[in-house]
């Protein structure tokens, strides 16, 4: 695995990170990994004045410090609308990737040409979303709570736990029609193969003259950009740590839940500072 060149100016490095269950944690995720100690939690997502997602106070402090030394790029499967609900309490970002890579924002403005290119590639390489939804219903009896994301892909909120054999069968089937799957918490994401966080991160890296990448994530959808990074960190509670063969090449944060997100940021900060 490549390591950060210590001769590089830290200010030009790029920190690309997933959001949910990596940096930020919903109430459901907090309940799934209960804290053994009392931590000060700060709301970083609101909807109609309702707090939805959180970071620890220390996590925000570490992220603020990292953002002063690196180019912080949030990379998320969230839709544009869902992402716009997230605020890092004044921590800015020049770029943001949403919709699993289908959309890139630069200084708050959507890069329309990137979105058009991705949309065209999806049309050429995979069957339409409406047909996928019908096939999942007919062949796999998947009909749980469904949400369509930016008219590009879909996730299901699964009432029952998805088994690994079922997930493998679904993965194999979707690969034949240009789609893929990721199971995160109770959400089952079904995404066109052409919609890739990795492609979006590579585009940003090249736009920034190919500067070194530090990455953080937890799911198979994050692996697309983590494998591009010079140093990659993953959460021990995530999909990647559980099933991916490349785990040994990544730094695995064993601490679970929101405290793990805090430890993740502290570990990256220590590495950047040469500790």
From TrEMBL:
Q: Which SUPFAM superfamilies match?
A: HAD-like
GO MF assignments: catalytic activity
Enumerate the spans annotated as Sucrose phosphatase-like domain: 14-237
Query: What is the designated name of this protein?
Result: Sucrose phosphatase-like domain-containing protein
